[in-house]
Specification:
heterodimer; A: 285 residues; alpha/beta; 8-stranded mixed sheet; 21% strand; globular; disordered N terminus; B: 471 residues; alpha+beta; 9-stranded mixed sheet; 20 strands; 39% helix; binds flavin-adenine dinucleotide; ubiquinone (chain B); FAD-bd (chain B); monooxygenase activity (chain B); UbiH/COQ6_monooxygenase (chain B); monooxygenase (chain B)
Chain lengths: 285, 471
C-alpha cells in the first residue's frame, strides 16, 4: 500500500479531466452521471509510482515510511473489524474476512492483513507494482496458504464484477492520487457488503500538510519520490465524509496521524490536520 | 475448511523441528561430527532463575504466546523441592506489580499455600541523626506494601505451573551448559541464532532471551557495553529468631555509616537479615561465633552512633516546624525488634554490585532480569525490576504478534528496551545514590539526607509517589 498507486484503466486522454476536477467541491457536480469513459486513474501518478518499483520492499529503502506505517495502519484495520478482550486474541483475527486493498502498490498493506488471516485481493493501476506484489508474496512462508491475489485493474472496473462482496475495503494513501474522487468512493462502496467497512488514510488538505507533505517529505527528507503527491488533489475529512454519506455509508471514526521522519515513526494524534484515517460502515439499503 | 485453517496455524509461528532448511543450513556451521542438531525453536530462554522461569511460564499461558515453541535452558540440575520447616536465608520482597503478574500466571496461589509474609509497615531511619521515614500500607495503598517470599518457594511455585499439563509449548533442559552463541543478524535468509551446548548438542531459534543473571553470557555474545562497579561491599544474609513474638509485619531498615541493615519479616518470631557492609567487615562478621554475631546485630540496630550537634539541632528545628503545620515530624518512632539468636548455619555473604547494560536488545535478542540490570539490594527492588521486564516483554511481544509481525520485529524490541530502561535506570541510579549518600558520615551530607528524609516523610504525596514507583 502505498501512497502511490491508484486505480485504473490506462487512458492517457484523461489528464485534462484531472485538472478540472482537482478540488473536491466540483467533484460532487461532475460525478452524478458516471459513464464508462470515466476513470479514477491519473496516469501521471501511476507512472511515477511505477518508477519506484525497484526499492519497494526494502524496509530501509525509498518506501521505508510506508513499511513503518503498517505499525499503525494494520491495527487500525484489525480493530475496526474485530474487537475482543486480551485473552480472546488469536493469531489470525481476520481469518474469516474478505478484504479488498485498493491501490495496493507493491503489497505492503495486503501482506500485512493477509498475515492476520484475511483473504485479500489487491488491485492497482500500475502493472509493475502488481508484478512486484505478486512476486514478493511468495517470499514469506507465513503467507504460503493465504497469499493475496493481485490484479492490475481499477476499482470501478473491479466493483462491476465484485459488488456487495467484501467485508472491508482498504484505501490507504490512494485517494489523494485519484482523478475522480466520487467515482472512486462510489466504486469502493459498491464492492462492500452492507455492514462492511471502508478504511481510508490520506493526507489532509491544510496549510500544515501542504508544507510538511510536499516540502519536507518530498524535498527535504526524500521520504517519497518527488512529485508523488500533488497538493491540489489532497482532500479533507469533511469532503470524504460527504462523499461517503452520499453513498450510503456512515462515518464512524476520524483520527489524526502524525509522522516523525527522523525516527521513522507514526503515531495517532487528536489533530487530523496532517494525515487522517477514517473508518465508515456501509448501511443496509 | 477446518483442515486448511489448522495448516495455516501451523505455518504461522510454530516452526516444525524437522524444518529441512534449518537442518541443511546447520550443516554449514558444523564441521565437527559430534555436534547434534536438536531442534529449531521460536524462542530460547537462556537461564531458568526466577525471572527466566516466569517468562517461560507466561509464554506457556498467554493466549498469543502459547503458539510459540519455547525452550528453557537452565544450568543447574532439576532439584526436587520440599518445603522444609526452617526458612531459607535467600528471600525477596515482592511488590504489588509482581504479585499481579504472579496472579495472572496462577503462581501466587502456590506461594500462598506454601508461605509468605505480608509487609504492612516499613520504617527506615538514619543511625547518624533522628531522621526517619515510615510507610504504612493502610494510609498509602489499600493493600500490603510488599511480601517477603523465599527465593526457592517462589521458584518452585512458578515451576509447578510451568510443568503442569496446561503448558504444552515449553521444553526444559536442566544441567544445560551453554558453550557458545552464534547470533544471526536477522533478515529473511537467516536461520536464526545457534546455541551450542557443552555435550555437542545445538539448538537454533529466532528469538533468544538472556535471563542468565548478572554474568550473562548472552549479553557478552551481544557485545553490548556493560557499565558495572562493585561496591566493595558484601551482603550478609541470615535467618533471625526474634526475642519476642509479635505480628511482625514491619520491615526495618537502618542506615549505618558502613551500609544499610534490614530485617524482613518471615513470621511472628522470625525475620530475614540483609546487611550490607565492607568486604573486610563481612569477613570478620562471618567468622564470629553465632552468639557474638547476634550481639553485633543488636548493636547495629540499636547502638547510638556519634552525632553531630549541628545536625541534631537542625532536625529538631525542622521537626518543630513540621509539627506546627500538623505534619508528621518523625518523632513517633517504633522500636525495632531484638534478635535472640540466628538459625544455625544460615549465615552467608554475597558480593554487591551495580550493573547496567546500555542495550537490552540486539536483532532477535533481548535481556531480562539481572542480565540487564543489577542493583544494590537495599531497596529490595532487584527481582521486581526483572519481573517488570517480563510483564512488558510479554505485552509488547503479544501486541506485535497480534499485528501480524515477526517475533523478532525491531519495533516491539525497541519499545521494550526504551520502556524498561525508562523505568529501571532511574530506580537503579536512585538506589545507587542512596547507598552512596548513606555510606558517608560527613556532617553536611548527614544533614542533607536527614532533612530530606524528614521532609519526605512529612509530605504524603511524595511518599505515595515513591511507593507507586517501587510498586
Ligand atoms: C544478597 C542479596 C540480596 C538480595 N535481596 C533482594 C531482595 O530483597 N529483593 C529483590 O527483589 N531482589 C534481591 N536480590 C536480587 C535478586 O536475587 C535478583 O535480582 C534475582 O535473583 C535475579 O533473577 P534472575 O532470574 O534475573 O537471575 P539469577 O537469579 O541470577 O538466575 C540466572 C539463572 O541462569 C542460570 N544460568 C546462568 N548462566 C547460564 C548458562 N550459561 N547456561 C544455562 N543457565 C545459566 C543460572 O543457573 C540461574 O538459574 C538480592 C540479591 C543479593 C545478592
Amino acid at each position: 500500500m502505498s501512497p502511490l498507486s491508484k486505480t485504473f484503466i490506462t487512458m492517457k486522454s484523461i489528464s485534462h479531466l484531472n485538472k478540472t476536477i482537482g478540488r473536491g467541491i466540483k467533484i460532487a457536480q461532475i460525478s452524478n452521471n458516471v459513464t464508462a469513459a470515466k476513470t479514477t486513474i491519473d496516469t501521471s501518478h501511476v507512472e511515477k509510482h511505477s518508477q519506484q518499483a525497484q526499492g519497494w520492499w526494502d524496509p530501509n529503502g525509498p518506501m521505508k515510511a510506508l513499511h513503518s506505517y503498517n505499525l499503525i495502519r494494520i491495527p487500525f484495520i484489525r480493530d475496526g473489524l474485530v474487537s475482543c478482550s486480551l485473552d480472546e486474541r488469536t493469531l489470525l483475527p481476520l481469518s474469516n474476512k474478505v478484504i479488498l486493498d485498493v491501490g495496493c502498490g507493491g503489497g505492503i498493506v495486503s501482506e500485512g492483513i493477509a498475515r492476520l488471516g484475511a483473504k485479500v485481493t489487491g488491485i492497482d493501476a500500475s502493472k509493475e507494482l502488481v508484478e512486484i506484489a505478486k512476486e514478493h508474496c511468495t517470499i514469506d512462508s507465513r503467507l504460503e496458504n493465504n497469499r493475496p491475489s493481485y490484479h492490475c485493474t481499477t476499482v470501478e472496473e473491479h466493483s462491476q464484477h465484485f459488488f456487495d462482496h467484501y467485508d472491508a475495503v482498504v484505501a490507504s494513501e490512494v485517494i489523494e492520487h485519484v482523478a475522480d474522487k466520487e467515482l472512486f468512493i462510489q466504486s469502493c462502496v459498491k464492492a462492500l457488503k452492507p455492514g462492511g467497512k471502508i478504511f481510508i488514510t490520506t493526507p489532509n488538505r491544510s496549510k500544515l500538510s501542504e508544507f510538511v507533505t510536499i516540502c519536507l517529505s518530498e524535498h527535504v527528507f526524500n521520504l517519497v519520490p518527488k512529485g508523488t503527491h500533488e497538493y491540489d488533489k489532497f482532500t479533507t475529512p469533511t469532503e470524504v465524509t460527504f462523499l461517503l454519506e452520499r453513498n450510503n455509508c456512515h462515518v464512524q471514526l476520524v483520527h489524526g496521524i502524525m509522522y516523525y521522519p527522523v525516527i521513522n515513526k507514526w503515531a495517532w494524534t487528536s489533530s487530523p490536520l496532517l494525515i487522517f484515517a477514517l473508518q465508515a460502515v456501509k448501511l443496509a439499503e | 475448511m477446518l483442515i486448511t485453517k489448522s495448516i495455516q496455524l501451523n505455518n504461522i509461528l510454530v516452526t516444525r523441528i524437522t524444518n529441512i532448511r534449518s537442518l541443511t543450513s546447520y550443516r554449514k556451521y558444523s564441521n565437527n561430527n559430534e555436534q547434534k542438531f536438536k531442534g529449531k525453536y521460536d524462542v530460547i530462554i537462556a537461564g531458568g532463575g526466577m525471572v527466566g522461569c516466569a517468562l517461560a511460564c507466561a509464554m506457556g499461558k498467554k493466549s498469543l504466546l502459547s503458539n510459540l515453541k519455547v525452550l528453557l535452558l537452565e544450568g543447574s540440575p532439576d532439584k526436587k523441592f520440599k518445603l522444609k520447616p526452617e526458612y531459607s536465608n535467600r528471600v525477596v520482597a515482592l511488590n504489588q506489580s509482581t504479585k499481579s503478574l504472579m496472579k495472572s500466571l496462577e503462581v501466587w496461589q502456590h506461594v500462598e499455600k506454601m508461605r509468605l509474609q505480608p509487609v504492612r509497615h516499613m520504617q527506615v531511619w538514619d543511625a547518624c541523626s533522628d531522621a526517619l521515614i515510615s510507610f504504612c500500607s493502610s494510609d498509602i495503598l489499600d493493600d500490603d506494601i510488599s511480601y517477603i517470599v523465599e527465593n526457592d518457594v517462589l521458584l518452585e511455585s512458578i515451576n509447578i505451573e510451568l510443568k503442569s499439563s496446561t503448558i504444552k509449548n515449553v521444553d526444559i533442559v536442566y544441567g544445560a551448559k551453554v558453550v557458545g552463541y552464534e547470533l544471526s543478524k536477522g533478515g529473511h535468509e537467516s536461520n536464526g541464532h545457534i546455541v551450542k551446548m557443552h555435550n555437542g548438542d545445538t539448538y537454533s531459534c529466532d528469538l533468544l532471551i538472556g535471563a542468565d543473571g548478572a554474568k550473562s553470557a548472552v549479553r557478552e555474545a551481544m557485545g553490548v557495553q556493560y557499565l558495572s562497579w562493585n561496591y566493595d561491599q558484601m551482603g550478609i544474609v541470615a535467618t533471625l529468631h526474634l526475642a519476642e513474638e509479635t505480628t511482625n509485619t514491619t520491615a526495618w531498615q537502618r542506615f549505618l555509616p558502613t551500609g544499610p541493615i534490614a530485617f524482613l519479616p518471615l513470621n511472628s518470631t522470625k525475620s530475614s537479615l540483609v546487611w550490607s557492609m565492607t568486604d573486610t567487615q563481612a569477613k570478620e562478621l562471618l567468622n564470629l561465633p553465632e552468639e557474638r554475631f547476634v550481639d553485633a546485630l543488636n548493636d547495629a540496630m540499636w547502638k547510638q552512633y556519634p552525632r553531630s550537634s549541628v545536625v541534631d539541632a537542625c532536625t529538631s528545628w525542622l521537626g518543630s516546624w513540621l509539627k506546627r503545620f500538623d505534619l508528621p515530624d518523625g518523632a513517633e518512632r517504633q522500636l525495632p525488634p531484638s534478635v535472640q539468636s540466628i538459625i544455625s548455619g544460615s549465615r552467608a555473604a554475597f558480593p554487591l554490585g551495580f550493573g547496567h547494560s546500555t542495550k537490552y536488545v540486539a536483532p532477535g535478542v533481548a535481556l531480562i532480569g539481572d542480565a540487564a540490570h543489577r542493583v544494590h539490594p537495599l531497596a529490595g527492588q532487584g527481582v521486581n525490576l526483572g519481573f517488570g521486564d517480563v510483564k512488558d516483554l510479554i505485552s509488547f511481544l503479544s501486541d506485535s504478534i497480534y499485528t501480524g509481525l515477526d517475533i523478532t520485529h525491531p519495533n516491539w524490541m525497541e519499545k521494550y528496551e526504551s520502556e524498561r530502561q525508562r523505568h529501571n535506570v532511574p530506580t537503579q541510579l536512585a538506589v545507587d545514590a542512596l547507598s552512596r549518600l548513606y555510606g558517608a558520615d560527613l556532617p553536611p551530607l548527614v544533614l542533607a539526607r536527614s532533612l530530606g528524609l524528614q521532609l519526605t516523610n512529612a509530605l504524603h504525596p511524595i511518599k505515595k509517589m515513591i511507593m507507586s514507583h517501587a510498586a
